[in-house]
Amino acid sequence: MARIARPDWASLGLLAFVVVFFVFMLAPILVVVVVSFTSASYVAFPVPGWSLKWFWHIFEYEPFIASLIVSFEVAVGATVLSCLIGIPACLALARSRAGWAGAVMTFLLSPLSMPMIVIASRAVLPVLGGDRHLLHRAARHPHGGVPAYVVRTVAGVPLRAARL
């Protein structure tokens, strides 16, 4: 005779909590996405009409385009530098039988344990005198480009090391 299983209240409670959690986390994002396609100049429900005008304003806003270009420049430069440093270092350390190889590998992986915002703010803010527009001004500042590249490179080396 088949036995009817009793509901596991702990599992049902956990499932309910997870569903409610994701609804509360994703609902505001969904609202912003839907409102971004409206033709009105204000938030209105139901949406009076559909338009891409707010997305076209992105391309008309010069500071955003300039920051986007700087972000791509720093991303490409830091990726190349971190690959040039991280891959040979990790290959050498993986093949090394020296006792210090583990310590050096730990040193290379250490930036993963520090939140990136702390590393970036400590490296770039002193150069800029406390300026809040870090990446854009850092890369265009006469001495600021170096910390921007260094921070991204330091962050990228452990990622290359972890993948090898």
Tell me what you see in this structure:
This protein is mainly α. It has helices at 9-36, 53-60, 62-95, 101-109, 116-128, 134-140, 145-163. It has 7 helices and no strands. The protein is flat, with a radius of gyration of 24 Å. The N and C termini lie far apart (55 Å).
List its traits.
164 residues, flat, mainly alpha
Q: Summarize the biggest pleated sheet.
A: none
Estimate the helix proportion, in percent.
over 70%
How are helices and strands ordered from N to C?
A: HHHHHHH
Mean of residue pLDDT?
Answer: 75
Give the total of beta strands. Answer: 0
What percent strand? under 5%
Distance between the termini: 55 Å
Helix and strand composition category = mainly alpha
Low-confidence stretches: none
| Total number of helices | 7
**Rg measurement, Å:** 24 Å
Q: Using the alpha-carbon principal axes, give the shape.
A: flat
Brief overview, please?
The protein has seven helices and no strands. The protein is mainly alpha-helical and about 160 residues long.
